[in-house]
Write a structure and sequence with these properties.
It contains 10 helices and 2 strands. The chain has 226 residues and is mainly alpha-helical. The chain has a two-stranded antiparallel sheet.
Amino acid sequence: MSSDAVLAGLRREARGVHAQTAQWVAAVLRQRIADGELTPGTKLPEEALREALGVSRNTLREAFATLHAERVVHRIPNRGVFVAHPTAEDVREIYRVRKLVEPAALLWASELDLEGLRAIVTRAREAMAVMDVPGMAGANQEFHRTILRGAGSGRLDVLMEQVLAEMRLVFAAMGWDPRFHAPYVEGNERIVQLLTAGDRALASEYLREYLSRAEEQLVDAVQGRE
């Protein structure tokens, strides 16, 4: 997506918002990164963003500081703020978190939306049939977001948005090869099958193994780029 299109979208989102705090700005930019609209290496122009979001320079810089602490942006002295390129160690840290919280959510979440997960897999299958890589990647993000949402915890939802924003940057290292994304469609479908059969324990174990395989594949890809 072009920078002009992103800025136009931000202007629309900012309309009618009366409390454009640094936390809100960070959430808006984080979502754009998680959705793949802001890709690794993209410069975040301070003045253009400040105008689009209707916030002060200090508010925007506070939001940048939050995102920097989350490792989704970095600041280059005398050049500005850029969307980050995750390292292999970043990938390992992301998956330390994912392998703890996602399998636990499958095992214990009281509000797991099985119908929603099933619908997401259907969309992913449709995207895979036409080799729509952004469609497959987006469905995968939503699948894992929905798993954590089942825990009914706002704090976990925020954590997952941070993780997904970093994951979108990691996936960028894989390019647009559908052969990378297709196995995730198959894996997510298998999880739904196990949940439908009522076997949460096996679904949780399967997800942990699936995440471990993904971690190694992504670490190899990122190391090859470094």
